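pipeline/complex-builder :: batch 7 item 3
reading input block
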Amino acid sequence: MGIPAVVDQLRKIAGRDAVLDRPEDLMLYEYDGGVRKRTPAAVVFPQTTDHVSQIMKLASSARFPVVARGAGTGLSGGAISPEGGVVVAFARMNRILEVDPENMRAVVQPGVVNQTLSDNVAHLGLYFAPDPSSQKACTIGGNVAENSGGPHTLMHGVTVNHVTGVTVVLPSGEVVRFGGKAAECGGYDLTGFFVGSEGTIGIVTEITVKLLRRPERVATLLAIFETIDDGARTVSAITAAGITPAALEMLDGWTLRAVEAACHAGYPLDAGAVLLIELEGLAEQVEEQAEAVREVCVQQKAREVRRAKDEAERALLWKGRKNAFAALGRLAPSYYSQDGVVPRTKIPAVLKFIGGIAEKYGLRIGNIFHAGDGNLHPLILFDPRDPHQLELVQQAARDILEYCVSVGGSITGEHGVGLEKRDLMPLLFTDQDLDVMLSLRNAFNAEGVLNPGKLFPTTRMCAETRGASRNPVLAAEGM
Amino acid sequence: MSATATSLDVVRELRAICGEEYVVEVTDKPANIHEDPNREIAARFFEHSFLVATPASTEEVSAILRLANERSVGIFPVGGRTNCYPPPRNSTHVVLSTSRLTEVEHYDPADLTVGVGAGMTLTRLNEIVGADQLMFAADPPYPERATVGGLLATASHGPMRHGYGGVRDFCIGVRFVTGDGRRAKGGGRVVKNVAGYDLMKLLIGSYGTLAVITSASFKLFPAPRQTKTFLAEFASAAEALKFRDLILHSPLSPMCLELVSPGARKLMRPEMTSDAWVICVRAAGSYAVLARYRKELGSAVTRELEGEKENLLWRKIEDCGLWDCIDVTVPTSEVAGVLGALDDAVSKGVAEYAALGRIGLGHVRVVTDIGDFGGPSPTTTLISCLRDRFQKKISLTVVTRGVNPWPITAPHPASMRAVKQALDPNNVLRGREIF
């Protein structure tokens, strides 16, 4: 079936106004938050689970690849379409279906924006814990696909720790339900397995999430250090003191100056690094911990430890952190962000290494990251119009991730593998590890209709996907 | 399967893999079974003899599974056998014990992470990390015998699940051998990691049907420096649940929040005559924090426990009635319905029941092998009463431990079968018994 016929069928399923196929419209769907691009053949906006089911049946029979898309804020190329692919966009499935305060659960459609859910349950004293920096735009469906994190996942865990049930459309079009409102469901934990599967197993159309009660007290501290090394050492010193902050973020001096210029968050312009530390819980506990953290910071040579006086000051400090990526946009046409992870005690060493890489390749690299769980975000500035620069940037990123793995870390803490890091998977996983993962993908998505070419290394896909050369869908695996 | 019933070739090959002394026919009961409070039921496991292979490495586990696939031999993995289900009588399974997989793969106290072999007991693990004032935050029954691998395979839990989450929340990596003999891993050694599929989630609670877990890595927690337990007694379950709701809606975040029914109290302390329902709240923190708990919990608190007495209470709760019990999990608002169904069962002839559980999470464990039950099968009566009450209104997960590890209705059998087929295509691990 050719693209015009596919578009025709999609319109029959989802409605005449629910399909885009003009080049000027499709351009808006050719990128996400990463650096790769590809224009899809069409974009369809389902409004019901049944629409998604019919779309998948059509895709499986007409053999075109499908990729689900939330808000396109992902940073690993997970929502980039393969050649000839159809994007299933969830902008019209954005309803909060149920809020159940008694059981502290909400049931949402995948297109609900992360922040919108928290805003809608705020009057009940509840919120949804995963808080990616893009939370004003990113969708909960996207959070489920990528198993997204955020600053406060240090205390509360990533998306998988907050999802108890999912309704999923499999590539065959079959609609299945895993889990529910209960804390556990017995049998294989297919909900847990599905979260973070990057759209390669099925498409989620309903999500049951946990809601948390807002803490009685929150203390937000800004610890200011002369050197990045002092700040880095403080991270493990806080952990060693037996304190688990709700969030523990680090900005290096260069980055915080750029952020301050853009956001006026009140960050010191002459510091080597700052730590943004948030504590939450029972008032008595938070006050004790705030004092203990202050002492640790001073012991580790903090020049000053400030505490946000009120909610407005707290919001300002967080505004600086959450808008940091955008702030760096003032300094260069583009940036490449990685999210390697290292054991917390290796943070001083990895920051030194990144400094060396910046020098080696002549690149500017800012560091703003989730220090508490060792999840780095080196932001490499570059001009995408210069192909040589892009090449250097990717090589620098690869060097950094190789280093992370060499000290016992990972290539991604919360952004996912997608397209960007698929060829780095062998740094972490053996052929047999990948073979086991591929056999699980094939248990649900053997023909590769769903999000082909993601998560698994290119070489693996070409070599091991049955009939790749003859099957147009599978040919896209190599992308 | 007895050694005599197993093909001598297979026995010889197993011995070539593990060593002569590590492939033995087990016919007698282990020494400690006599100390087991549920020894009669535990003994059933050993009533018929099995061939037990005890590999020393992941390579040996893989070799055993490859051999099992070639020779169509069933494998039944076990850890400390505190929470496992005997292979069916006359089954042809070889028991694969993880008891020699006890090495520490990595221990990074400053990073709060540890990785250990699947056969390490939880007591041993807590001894290692306790030296650095850290804690492995799972407290399932019988920690002296329960192993890391068994904990993962059965998704077992204890009272601390309320405050620290289940093992799915703090297992950060797993190494395993699939049913078809492939050695693989998921996750890693760092606390945040989304590279590849989350195979930890898939294996946790899979009861050894997909793979043999050989080692795993975990997040650790700082051990609380001071704790206190507050007990509140109530004349009825309804009043106890009201108190639970008060706690759940308060700013308090206790380590443990457990319900103990009058029957469970008697099971733990046979001399007990009180008919009160008890809510046990365990809190950690400074004097100021504990004083705040006391204030918030109010006049309902009748006793406060610290030190040895406190530890003893929680051990009794952890160990209460592991064998032959059913675990019910519902949304928290439906716990009252579960307790109502237990009363229905009493009116249908079940003489008495013991219930306890993490009611802040909707979990209730019902022990059915106490006292003089009226009917021949109290478990069946209980399940039928639960079904009558809930019908299809909500998803009700009932796991009948000691009989069958799977819920009365599997979440999606076809998807479970697809996963099983992907990792254990020849049904070597525990065969087809679960489906």
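note: Residues 145 and 198 of chain A are 4 Å apart (CA to CA).
queue -> next item
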